[in-house]
Amino acid sequence: MSVWSASTVGHQNTRYSHSNSWCPNLTKHKCVMSGETPIQSGDALHTPAYLSWRKLQLSRAKLKASSKTSALLSGFAMVAMVEVQLNPPNDTKVPPAMLVAFTVCTTLLVAVHMLALMISTCILPNIEAVGNLHSISLVHESPHERLHWYIEIAWAFSTLLGLILFLVEIAILCWVKFYDLSETAAWSACVVLIPVMIVFLAFAIHFYMSLASHKYEVTVTGIKELELLKEQIEMGDHDSRMNNLTLLDQSRVV
Questions:
Q1: How far apart are CA 251 and CA 254, in angstroms?
Q2: Where do the TM regions start and end (predicted)?
Q3: How many domains does the chain have?
Q4: pLDDT at 9
Q5: What's the whole-model pTM score?
């Protein structure tokens, strides 16, 4: 697979396969212009740079999912608030407290998702600029390590708090919309929402515990591998010292 490097300038008749861009410092940056992954380009795996590269990919995926989810749900909330038809106070049986709850929930829902969307929009381009280069040696130029907590906040606001507020918004909207027509319909929304909320929270807790357990197992495995590598290095040093002593004794005998 050919790569367009600086040494090919001036050869216009040469054919290049799958190389659409050019890096002026190819040997230093190890950029893979042909679309290869960093593993295919020969970068080392078990290094701090590769671990940071994996974190970069995870952060980029989280920010992409957060931005899409936040934009979608905040748009639904705005449409629901604008399109809902409310009767005058003298002609409605909806409790005033329910209207206040609807206003507060809608405002919080939009604000939470807008905050997550703002964080994703500000951070994602800086991560994408480094991630699209497909080079582990440039991973230190990405701000994903420094802005780790902002990324986690955007992820939590969009997928956890934002989804909970959206479910509550559905129940309150059903109450405001159908209470004048049928109180049974309004109460049925709450009855259906309660088990859905329980399942949602149970899945969130189970997912978090499973993810924490997986990270713990991966960490333990990594520690065992490091201990094994340490033992191998110590054995190699011991064998090297023994060989040196043997050679020294032989030289003295001679």
A1: 5
A2: 69-86, 98-119, 153-179, 185-208
A3: 2
A4: 39
A5: 0.65
Query: Between the CA atoms of 223, 226, 230 and 232, what dihedral angle is there, to the nearest 10 degrees?
Result: 120
One domain for residues 24 and 94:
no
Identify the CATH number of the domain in which residue 142 sits: 1.20.140.140
Half-sphere exposure of 118 (CA within 13 A, CB side): 6
Does 194 lie in the same domain as 95? yes
User: Distance between CA 202 and CA 231 in Å, rounded?
Assistant: 43
Q: Report which residue type is found at 110.
A: V
Q: For residue 17, give the amino acid letter.
A: S
Give the contacts of 102 (CB within 8 A, at least 6 positions apart). Answer: 169, 172, 173, 175, 176
Same domain, 166 and 201: yes
Which residue carries 């189970």 as its tokens? 206
| DSSP letter (8 states) at residue 1 | -
Domain extent at residue 4: 1-36
For the chain, list residues with pLDDT below 70: 1-46, 238, 244-245, 247-254
Share of the chain above pLDDT 70, in %: 77
